[in-house]
Amino acid sequence: MNKIKGFTLIEIIGVMAVIAILASMATPRIFDAIEDSKVTAVIQQANTVKTTVADFYADTGIWPRHIPTHVDENLHQLMVNKNGSGNPINGWDGPYMDKELVNPVVGGGFQDILVTDNASYACDLDGNGVQDGRFIIYRIDNVNDSVAQKVSQSMDKDGSVISGDGDWKKAGRVRRYGGNHGSILLICLARV
Length: 192
Prior knowledge:
26% of the residues are buried. The chain contains two helices and four strands. It is an alpha+beta fold. It has a four-stranded antiparallel sheet. The longest helix is centred in the first third of the chain and has 52 residues.
């Protein structure tokens, strides 16, 4: 009589338990790595946008309005030589980017580059609670608090990631729309 060789049910359960333990230890690290890559992408893109906007201003003497997902090409001034009325922009020497901006956190998510002194976009660089003037802003939507706070910690050193302090949402170059919005991240590129 031939004896069939194989694994017992206990051995299979033991192997599955070891695999489950290893997976539970690795999963949080994988998600942290994904989140950290989003933080890095936001910072790199913000720095690129800042340089691009400065080049545009140096050539034209005006600040661009750029909304990558908007259908109106008049609002793609870093890529297309048209002002808000559809006329050519004097001094324009673009395109100023090799490819269109893509939201680094959520593909297809809304982004905007604009000049404003609107109170909801207010930049409070010194953290005294008073708006510090008019700025060119890079707005990125659909950014969760964890990513936004890490970006703020990296760029402003005020994210208080460990303590969970909410002041980063209202002050600095990196902040939330209106000081409290749950998904709109604002990066103040330059005072104008």
